[in-house]
Specification:
Blueprint (H helix, E strand, L loop, with lengths): L2 H10 L6 H5 L2 E11 L2 E6 H14 E14 L2 E12 L6 E14 L2 E11 L1
Parallel strand pairs: 1-6
Antiparallel strand pairs: 1-2, 3-4, 4-5, 5-6
Length: 120
């Protein structure tokens, strides 16, 4: 599987809201540098698992719509919108945020991520 296909598989899975699934995709030494609307956050393996588990408490479904994906060797750039369905209203899909991220793949896992997001 190519690096680009691996990243697409990650976003098509439930990894963003399932701590067990996300483990399949993360390198043990993963670091994500995230510039969000709340400022800069650096996430490691454990904090990414915690984030995924926290999201699973609020959302029953997660869907990523990729608008752009560009790959060069082990670097993959993705522009996407993240949609969720809440526990309170599982029939309504709502836009959580827009993202752009550059992933570096190492050992067929997500190794380094450089991400920016904007709330909807």
């Amino acid at each position: 599987m190519s690096a680009k296909e691996f990243v697409q598989k990650f976003y098509k899975s439930d990894a963003l809201i399932d701590g067990e699934v996300i483990k399949e995709f993360l390198h043990p030494d993963v670091i994500v540098e995230w510039n969000s609307s709340k400022g800069f956050v650096e996430l490691n393996y454990d904090s990414l698992l915690n984030l995924s588990n926290d999201l699973s408490k609020a959302y029953v479904r997660s869907k990523v719509r990729i608008s752009h994906i560009i790959g060069e060797n082990d670097l993959i750039s993705v522009r996407y919108s993240h949609f969720v369905k809440t526990i309170e209203n599982p029939r309504e899909e709502m836009l959580l945020a827009h993202f752009i991220v550059i992933w570096q793949i190492k050992d067929n896992k997500l190794y380094r991520g450089y991400q920016m997001s904007q709330l909807s």
